[in-house]
Amino acid sequence: MSDELHEEIRAAVGAILKGRDSQDDFDRSLWKDLCDTGFHLLGVPEEIGGSGGGLRDLAVVVDLLAFHGARVPVAESAFLAGWLLARAGLSIPDGVVVASIDQARVHRRDGLRLSGRVRTPWGRHAGHVVTTAHDGNVVVSPVSAVERQENLAGEPRDVVVLDNVEVTAVAPVGVEPDEILHRGALVRAVQLAGAARAVLASARRHVAQREQFGRPLARFQAVQQHLAALAAEVTAMRVSADAAVLAVEASDRGAAIAVAAAKATTSAGAHVVAGIGHQLHGALGYSAEHALGAATTRLWSWREEFGNESYWHDRLAAAEGSVWSVVTGGDR
Amino acid sequence: MTSTIDLVAHRHSTAEHELRDEVRQFLGDQRAAGAFRPRCDAWMTAADPAFSRLLGSRGWVGMTLPGRYGGHDRTPLERFVVVEELLAAGAPVAAHWIADRQMAPSILRNGTEAQRQRYLPGIVKGECFFAIGMSEPDAGSDLAAVRTRAVETPRGWEITGTKLWTTGAHFAHAIVVLARTDGTPGDRHTGLSQFVVDLPHQAVEIRPIVTIDGEHHFNEVVFDRAVVPADALLGDRGAGWRQVIAELGHERSGPERFLSTFPLLEAWAAQTSDDPVAAREVGRLTARAWTLRQLSLAVAADLAAGRSPEVAAALVKDLGSRFEGDVVETVRRVAGAEPRRGADGLAGLLADGVLHSPAFTLRGGTNEVLRSVVARGLGVR
Ligand SMILES: Cc1cc2nc3c(=O)[nH]c(=O)nc-3n(C[C@H](O)[C@H](O)[C@H](O)COP(=O)(O)OP(=O)(O)OC[C@H]3O[C@@H](n4cnc5c(N)ncnc54)[C@H](O)[C@@H]3O)c2cc1C
């Protein structure tokens, strides 16, 4: 993804991200700047209130936010909620809108009511949650009660409690749970690759600066070999996520396989990347002061969400046809 | 990240898809007719001149060469599709492999018109095979240390020296030799030149070297004041190092760098469906193969666009060659099958895989050296 447009997006979002140092679990000022520029809803159709643009444009933003460990829910809003709403033909409510991971139960009593406990990243900061009902239909509802939970990186992974809540909108359009799982896996693959890139960037800087035995660590061949292995894994993660985004955007026949393989690759790569990354940084990288931990704890969290590598390995093993036909994925 | 590793995923064109279907159909028919048995590492070990000629007649050798040399003007990405299908099927492509992969583009780029006319049409037909004479007893990873010398004489070039580990020299029609024409070994990268030497040659002795699988794949090739014509020089005198480095992009990045053991994986997967432990491992290797293929394809697309992704190629080969060994170890460990040389089915494929596994991370540049290339690309060397 290195077209001119993507370079421009990268530069613009990069400029917005510059010099941020929020310690809150939600970086409101960054979120506001993203909203003001429309980057928070890139890749979501304008007809429903998004900023327009394609999936790859959005992936560039999500990748960059992950690279910077930005504390904003663009993955959950544009990539997931925006997509669900676009599928359902519903417009995007104002404020922070995120998608839940689980389904809720809809029932009818004085109009449409929704009940259930749905795992919802960033739920505590959301005005609305987009969820699917047990019949698969897409439902938007206000968020009132939230049980707070966090992942290893301290990101909000809340449970939104829907207790007979009056829905904001419902569409008679169903989205299969498996489609949502794939969509979530795709965005996490992009994020994992972004966080992995941050580990590599930090490691390169660190080994060039830190001196031991009278020379920079980068002078030691053992360190160089580690760094090369790290770069290889990071590149594998990035190219697999890129290829999956490309396949999904083009609605290729092999898109589902691409997502499965990309999420498997990025999830499995997390261990390699975090491991080498920490080894190269020494004790400094283990300190919470250092930015490395923000990237590695995200790697350790995101790899588990929307199916870890074992889940997707099983799915790939169950795919139709020879291994080779799966590997070549038929992208027509 | 530096631009050196900025690979971009490639989507196939319709023409590439159609070509794939065509090759798959052909290979299915050939297998059904008993023309070949899938083998691991077939691109290095399974030489079948008749099969090479058959591929040539289908237009699948020297595909990217221009029509005036008998080539088919296909794109490098179309070639990628054809060779990956051949490799995944474990088809016997070793005879023409080096000629097709490396010498065709090299002679086209560096050769004189006479050299092109002489070699390229034969390569395209699948009838002209090559060997690579780079490594020597004292020049392995440190290739610039080659000692073979070529001296200009009134009769042509006189070459003296020993090449080692020369794959396929015993059936090749020609060998490309890296030799010192000027200066001393201490001069390193300057003063080296490439030559194309026709085989057999009365002053070139080819001695077989048997490998641990009990077979004869590579050789020691001794040049004893072997005189070759003045026009055997390939490219510019003294430009040998630069030319060899340019070839490495082709030599290192291809799908043979992750598919050598794929026939073993495929054979195993066909019999594991009701074992959940095995199935998960098949899935794991499938995901890895999918990603490595995307990487290899991205490098090919970069090469096709006229760039020279030397660092990316090294990185992909490091990952790919480790995967080849991973397949072997996984099948062995999980299937519990005992490898048996020459046996049909899994036991035979496994034997090939185990016995060839040391080669994966050595040939074409060791993984340690590849990682040094990557480290340099990252700016830390
Ligand atoms: C199956 C096979 C086929 C081959 N076919 C051909 C062919 O057709 N033509 C041809 O010319 N050559 C061929 N080769 C040779 C191949 O290119 C060499 O094996 C390779 O370049 C390594 O050289 P070496 O074997 O001398 O090992 P060495 O260079 O002696 O290396 C031994 C070990 O030391 C490590 N090492 C060396 N230098 C460094 C360093 N600077 N830093 C860190 N580690 C280092 C290596 O990584 C390796 O682990 C073939 C090899 C094999 C195995």
TrEMBL record, chain A:
Its cofactor is FAD. InterPro entries: AcylCo_DH-like_C, AcylCo_DH/oxidase_C, AcylCoA_DH/ox_N, AcylCoA_DH/ox_N_sf, AcylCoA_DH/oxidase_NM_dom_sf. Residues 12-89 form the Acyl-CoA dehydrogenase/oxidase N-terminal domain. One of its GO terms (molecular function) is flavin adenine dinucleotide binding. Keywords: FAD, Flavoprotein, Oxidoreductase. Residues 181-296 form the Acyl-CoA dehydrogenase/oxidase C-terminal domain. It comes from the Bacteria. The keyword Translocase does not apply. Belongs to the acyl-CoA dehydrogenase family. This is Acyl-CoA/acyl-ACP dehydrogenase. It comes from Lentzea alba.
Automatic annotation (TrEMBL), chain B:
GO terms for cellular component: plasma membrane. Residues 131-225 form the Acyl-CoA oxidase/dehydrogenase middle domain. Keywords: FAD, Flavoprotein, Oxidoreductase. InterPro entries: Acyl-CoA_DH_CS, Acyl-CoA_Oxase/DH_mid-dom, Acyl-CoA_Oxase/DH_mid-dom_sf, AcylCo_DH-like_C, AcylCo_DH/oxidase_C, AcylCoA_DH/ox_N, AcylCoA_DH/ox_N_sf, AcylCoA_DH/oxidase_NM_dom_sf. Residues 272-378 form the Acyl-CoA dehydrogenase/oxidase C-terminal domain. Residues 15-127 form the Acyl-CoA dehydrogenase/oxidase N-terminal domain. Pfam families: Acyl-CoA_dh_1, Acyl-CoA_dh_M, Acyl-CoA_dh_N. It comes from the Bacteria. The keyword Transmembrane helix does not apply. GO terms for molecular function: acyl-CoA dehydrogenase activity; flavin adenine dinucleotide binding. Its cofactor is FAD. SUPFAM superfamilies: Acyl-CoA dehydrogenase C-terminal domain-like (SSF47203), Acyl-CoA dehydrogenase NM domain-like (SSF56645). Signal peptide: none annotated. PANTHER family: ACYL-COA DEHYDROGENASE, ACYL-COA DEHYDROGENASE FADE34. Belongs to the acyl-CoA dehydrogenase family. This is Acyl-CoA dehydrogenase.
